[in-house]
Structure to design on (204 residues):
């Protein structure tokens, strides 16, 4: 998408909100988004569950406190209550988006799809993977050609490529990356599955 004018920004914000609500629905229905029938899904949201719950609890407490403080100003109280309630929905929706949009390995299509919620979705052709390994990192300095998708401030899998793939940011900025670092709840299983797929074996 080109340009970041008001119309483009509005479109992106509306799309973001719709995806959040869709994620909540998928989460409630115990379904995943775009998981290939013959592929394997690898979650990454487990590490952020406690933090998300804590943040949502803080938002609820703040909402109750504001209700008490603004009880003598009904109009302001109602506006703040709606905003606080929607903040809780956004927090839960962001976690739901991470749960229903796992990483997906699809040997039939020859792709590894690395995702983080509704914000990142990078498709990596298996033939472009030079190496994949478990690698726990808790610090991620910005580097040219690298994409770090930390969860709970850490990544646990590193994928190095022979050729770059495109990563498109929220506002449509496109850049080429040769190294993708991501987190997985079971990094060993993801690494082994990718290695088997690259070798041409079926992924269970």
């Amino acid at each position: 998408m080109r340009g970041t004018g008001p119309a483009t920004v509005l479109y992106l914000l509306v799309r973001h909100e719709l995806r959040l609500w869709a994620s909540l629905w998928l989460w409630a229905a115990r379904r995943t988004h775009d998981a290939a029938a013959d592929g394997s899904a690898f979650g990454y949201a487990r590490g952020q569950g406690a933090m998300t719950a804590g943040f949502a609890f803080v938002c609820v407490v703040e909402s109750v406190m504001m209700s008490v403080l603004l009880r003598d100003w009904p109009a302001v109280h109602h506006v703040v209550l709606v905003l606080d309630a929607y903040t809780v929905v956004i927090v839960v929706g962001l976690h739901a988006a991470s749960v229903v949009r796992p990483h997906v390995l699809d040997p039939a299509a020859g792709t590894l799809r690395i995702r983080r919620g509704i914000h990142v979705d990078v498709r990596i052709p298996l033939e472009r993977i030079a190496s994949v390994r478990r690698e726990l990192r808790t610090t991620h300095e910005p580097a040219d050609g690298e994409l770090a998708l930390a969860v709970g401030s850490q990544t646990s899998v590193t994928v190095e490529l022979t050729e770059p793939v495109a990563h498109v940011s929220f506002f449509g900025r496109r850049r080429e990356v040769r190294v993708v670092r991501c987190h997985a709840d079971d990094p060993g299983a993801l690494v082994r599955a990718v290695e088997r797929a690259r070798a041409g074996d079926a992924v269970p």
